[in-house]
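Reading is simple: each integer encodes one residue's backbone shape. The lines below illustrate:
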Amino acid sequence: MRCTARAAVRGRASDLHPGLWALTVLASACLPSPSLPSHDAGQDISAPPAPPTPPAVIDLSVVDEDGVAHAQDETPLRPVLVLRLTGPMEGDPEPLMLLRGEVDGALIEDLASAPLRVATRARVLDACIERFASGAQIRPSAALEPGERYLLALAAWAGEDNPLGVPFGADLRAAEHGGGARVDGSWPADGTEGVPGVIPLLAVRFDEIVRGAPAGVRLVDESGSAVPTRRALTSCLELGWPEGDCVSLEPIDPLWPGRPHRIEVTEEVLDRGGAPVGPVVFQFRTGTGAFLSPSLNAPACALDETLWRGDVPEGVPPEESPALGCLFVDDRSLELRLTATGPLRYRLEGSAGSTRAVAARGDAALTLRHLAPDTAQDLWLDAVDLAGHTLRLPVHAQTTEALDAVYVMEVRADPLGAEPRQEYVEVLNAGTTTVDLGGYSLSDAGDRPGDVLPSPSPLGPSERALLVADGFDPTDGYGAPIPAGARLIRLGTSLGSGGLSNSGEPVYLRDALGRRLSGAPARPTAGAGICLVRVVEDGRRMDDDAFAFQGSCTPGTGRLAR
């Protein structure tokens, strides 16, 4: 039976509770069941009844909607968590809850007695709870985030006449992959205005496989009536999205001008575990006049990028032709950054390969990798608008000569110690010869040269160095210890412009000629003492997928991911 009622699992704010309670974290699928009292035939019924026994946890099951069991560290994004007890689960406020994050001392203390503090309430997910004679099951109202940590908690006040007494908890981790599909985007995007009435393609992307599509995806008008369309499963890659399951919709008749419409993903669409992915709605409004195709406008280019001007008309000096984008080229890759006044789908292709992107708001970065050094690249860019019109422009580039293999490997922007003094950026010489880093620069902005490394600063093959501020103390005693003898290269009063921001800013490493060798993306820090670490072998990459947060920093000792 599916759970349809939504019960808000919340507590009430309170002052601090005295004492610290031990939270039992479930490490296996099943705990031994306590022995229950039995009634002997010769028992004196005139004796006073035994006090009620507190409920005890028997086991926790993590299943999907199809009833398939999953490990706690591979929890589906839409799980059904079934907790079995030796007695009924009562209590006010609701003692069973699912919380974001992991267990800590403050949470253990708060779960010992009601009401809950405001900080704990903020961690509790909205969920649906169904109770039965000896336990309960809980379903979160919204999908969990892949890879994130959660805690199923049963507060100490759970129980009918005799409470549990000690809170119970089970650590969960939502599956990074394979935990269930989510709706990842639409074409046109939610909130788009001025959509042409004659639109050849509408589409929705799911980031994993789904069941019930395309039947469970539909286009409706402002009255809620279905608009006739031809629906089909289609290639996400062909549309410009990453791999997944995509549904295309082609309206049979022109859409009414100046009217709101919406693409609906209904509860008919199920993820791989049988849970509904919807309902999800994407709204857009058709225009009232002639549709104008978006125009390309070059964004502000970084120091190591060049303006891309497309096809320069004959007789027009290149510097007078309008700039259309920013082009970055190194010895292995090129990236074309584009900004447009409206939605476009891009395709960049040539003899060395192709790449695509859906730019729902007009902005995109198209990257081609695995190119040969010092090689001409002749490509074509296609930009397709909502009406299906295609703008085709040539792109000419030349990869650089082979560059030094010096890479950014680890960034500590939020140290446990003093900020910004104890921040560092770790670099690795992945080449086979010693490189002098003197004249290299480290910057936290694409349009600034940043801090110049002192000369000489030789770095041997496979050797690492920490780029740090002048006041960096390798023996401060906070966080991961700096190994004795680790290379420290001091750059000034702080890294970047007053230190590396905890809210996220990029890092650029350039050689003495100003050519970008490596870097790291702008990612908000995940907490004090947690490092952003490279997880791909290609040290030139500085996109989000090339890095991940690692709880234990490894200054001067990490290894290149394989």
The chain has a mean pLDDT of 88. The first helix runs from residue 105 to 110. The first strand starts at residue 24 and ends at 25.
